[in-house]
């Protein structure tokens, strides 16, 4: 099979895969009490959570909830995946840049509603006991697969991070092929302290076990400069140079044939995948649900219900609260 024929077959398989996904997954959830994530997207309608445009062989995907620091809501995972697939179908596109509008790249999942309601009122991550792990898994597994569209994209993806790329925002950014940050931007996974586990599990594959443990076992945030020094991201530059730096890298790649970009990326991805990336994601996605239904996770949610999510997060991240002791205290009430 010659190269031209090979690419035609790949293009046919991509289109067939996308069509099949849309037919099989009009809704992720059948439970009436759970609001569905958007599995498919009509390109004739405007996106609700992002902006999309193409210029000079580069597709620009911009998260567009600036009033919420681009926090992840119900629609965003599916729209990210749809936009990536759209760029992959477009023969005029060779590189994809993902960024965030406003003051941040992405501040994580928009969990305020879930945290500040009684258990079971918002069924995602906040179930009544006994806990059904399947309910959590299918929600977060869908989100993980949507974010991993950046990893699986046939075309190279660059995440441009400014402000904050934390919690679920770091999940998104680290799925990209390359991440370039502003030097003073912050990245990390604070819910590792309580009420979360990073479902895309990219930290170990980017940092190695010891440095990944340093971040995951403390929940600490690090700056773009620190992230670049540790090897978590490709590069960190002053924020006023961020657009220029990312564009320069995209411009360097966009003159490489699409098939060449695809071939090199697949070989490199295969190494991480053979090391157990997908198995780690399956485990971390299951554990993510566990963290919100453990005694400490329940105690955190009860505190957020009583005092507000922002105050609970601030207390969690400060390290001043021992959530095991708080769970025991609440259990005696």
From TrEMBL:
Q: Which GO terms describe its molecular function?
A: catalytic activity
What PROSITE patterns does this protein's entry cite?
A: ENOYL_COA_HYDRATASE
Q: What single Pfam family name could you report for this chain, choosing any that match?
A: ECH_1
| Similarity comment text for this entry | Belongs to the enoyl-CoA hydratase/isomerase family.
Q: Which NCBIfam families match?
A: PRK08272.1 (NF006128)
Name of the featured protein: Enoyl-CoA hydratase, mitochondrial
Q: Which organism is it from?
A: Holothuria leucospilota
């Amino acid at each position: 099979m010659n190269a031209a024929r090979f690419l035609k077959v790949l293009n046919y398989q991509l289109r067939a895969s996308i069509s099949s996904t849309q037919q099989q997954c009009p809704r992720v959830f059948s439970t009436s009490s759970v609001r569905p994530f958007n599995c498919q997207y009509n390109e004739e309608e405007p996106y609700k959570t992002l902006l999309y445009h193409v210029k000079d062989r580069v597709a620009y995907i911009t998260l567009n909830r600036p009033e919420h620091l681009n926090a992840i809501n119900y629609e965003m995972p599916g729209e990210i995946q749809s936009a990536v697939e759209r760029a992959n179908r477009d023969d005029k596109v060779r590189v994809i840049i993902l960024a965030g509008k406003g003051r941040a790249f992405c501040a994580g999942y928009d969990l305020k509603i879930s945290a500040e309601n009684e258990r079971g009122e918002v069924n995602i991550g906040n179930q009544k006991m006994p806990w059904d792990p399947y309910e959590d898994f299918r929600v977060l597994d869908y989100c993980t697969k949507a974010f991993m569209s950046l990893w699986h994209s046939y075309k190279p993806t660059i995440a441009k991070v400014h402000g904050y790329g934390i919690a679920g925002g770091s999940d998104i950014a680290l799925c990209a092929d390359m991440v370039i940050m502003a030097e003073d931007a912050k990245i990390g996974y604070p819910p590792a302290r309580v009420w979360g586990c990073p479902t895309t599990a990219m930290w170990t594959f980017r940092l190695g076990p010891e440095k990944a443990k340093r971040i995951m076992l403390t929940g600490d945030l690090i700056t773009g400069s620190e992230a670049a020094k540790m090897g978590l991201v490709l590069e960190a530059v002053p924020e006023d140079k961020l657009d220029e730096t990312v564009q320069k890298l995209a411009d360097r790649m966009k003159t490489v044939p699409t098939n060449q970009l695809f071939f090199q990326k697949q070989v490199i991805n295969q190494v991480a995948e053979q090391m157990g990336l997908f198995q780690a994601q399956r485990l971390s996605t299951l554990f993510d649900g566990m963290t919100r239904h453990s005694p400490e996770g329940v105690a955190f949610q009860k505190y957020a219900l009583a005092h507000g999510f922002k105050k609970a997060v601030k207390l969690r991240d400060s390290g001043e609260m021992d959530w095991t002791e708080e769970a025991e205290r609440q259990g005696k009430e």
